[in-house]
From TrEMBL, chain A:
Superkingdom of this protein's organism: Eukaryota
Gene name tied to this protein: SRR1_2
Keywords for the protein's UniProt record, in alphabetical order: Phosphoprotein, Two-component regulatory system
Residues of the Response regulatory domain: 77-206
Protein's UniProt name: Sensitivity to red-light reduced protein
GO process annotations (BP): phosphorelay signal transduction system
TrEMBL record, chain B:
Keywords for the protein's UniProt record, in alphabetical order: Phosphoprotein
Residues recorded with modification Phosphohistidine: H97
Entry annotated with the keyword Phosphoprotein: yes
Region (Disordered): 1-41
GO biological process terms, semicolon-separated: phosphorelay signal transduction system
Name recorded for this polypeptide: HPt domain-containing protein
HPt domain segment(s): 58-160
Pfam families the UniProt entry points to: Hpt
Presence of the UniProt keyword Phosphoprotein in the record: yes
Amino acid sequence: MLCSLIRKMCTTSTTSLLQDTSSLQKTTSTYFNKAINNMTASPILSTISPPSSPAMSIESDFEDHDETTTTQPRKIKVMIIDDNSVNLTILSRLLNKHFADTIQLTSVQNSGLAALDQLTKDEVDLILMDIDMPVLSGVETTTAIRNNDSHSEHSILEQNLNVPIIAVTTSDAEEQRELYRQVGMADCVSKPIAIPKLRMAIEEAMKTVSTNG
Amino acid sequence: MAVELRDDSDNGSDFSRPGSPSPSSPTPSLSNTTSNRGQGIVDHTTFDQLLDMDLDDDDEFSRTLVHNYFEQAQRAFGDMDAAMSASDLLALSRLGHFLKGSSAQLGLLKVKASCEKLQYYGQRMDATGQHSSISNEEAEKQIRVLLIQMRREYDEAESYLRDFYGEQEQQQ
């Protein structure tokens, strides 16, 4: 309602409207782990101001929405895949701590097969995938996703077929990176993970989605 | 779907920022000592990033993670011994790669480097991973020596980390 009123007052303006989602974050904090619960209770994080950039959220173009709806910008739904539990723990924590404003870690899988199964059920916006895994490697899993081969009787959800996939691996030589590109991966981030590099890779991968509509 | 991600804590090792969690090292003096000793054993740029993910005054996350790594490494070493006995070079390569990842994530420099060599030797490549092929016998010989070295490096890293957290060193 308020957004509608503002739009009517600024009919010649293309100003983007941003919503303060701090209250939303509090109600969704139950889905986060203990650390995030504690963090959102902190005086600093409970007063998070709205995103400084209209591009921070996935759906920031409010002009496309029905005037009767108040669309909340939603977070990027991320799946992480690694057969090493230590690596999974670190990446989970890293995403929850450093990317909590924009990323929702929705799926943690310890194998390519488990990931494929999950992709037949739930939609994700981004996958962070280890490469060297037993049974199905990251390359093989990516190929399976792109070819809609879930290794089961169910199909991968259509929305997941072209999901951006970022390799997270120690196997990061140039010829390996080229292979990852060839099978359809968006980027490769080396372990140990440097947060700025992960951030840049995610931004670039999501820009590709934006460009392709 | 253009996304710009912002974060107020990009550099995990910068503890001077207002509002950032304080480092969870046991005592400042011990931290300085272990940081100096850590040179060559632990890359603190990487390890401090893990410490930064602890909550204020609570090192539960990093400590638990490190202990999980200890358990993982012990299992891996057991599997390596079994693979060595069976002359299963490919299994040794996989195990080397497996442990390399988590060692890298904790910043354990020497262990990571040795794991990488194991990965290459197990594929009958030389220590640098060049595509020169070595014989099975040569690979096994190199791996036999490497496993002893790797174990020593791991023990050094474990000792360092237990000291860092103020724990008694476990009897092996």
